[in-house]
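Pilot study result, target chain (104 residues):
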Amino acid sequence: RNGIYPLMNFAVSRPHALPRALSQPQEDPQKAKTPTPEPFDVETRKVVQMQCNMELNEDKTQWHLTLLLILEDKLHRQLSYDLLPTDNSKDLATELVHYGFIHE
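Predicted structure:
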């Protein structure tokens, strides 16, 4: 929440499936509980200044985005992300709001 965190660390990772013993009964899919996602904090401070920097990685195959945000309480937040070919600005902005990095 406070500090430098790459956005790529927030991707959902799937746990590796462990093999089951044959003697265990199968679970009823209707009774299986799905994990509830943890709620994210909503950012209430507004961004008063933003600096965006894009540069090619050393191998010249992928763009690297760095955002420096200054919030209204003078807190500096630096975010970095390796852009994928399928990324667009609207989806990135929605993701920043969803994870509580910026105010809507």
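One observation from the pilot: The beta strands are 47-56, 63-71, 76-82. A full batch analysis is planned for the follow-on phase.
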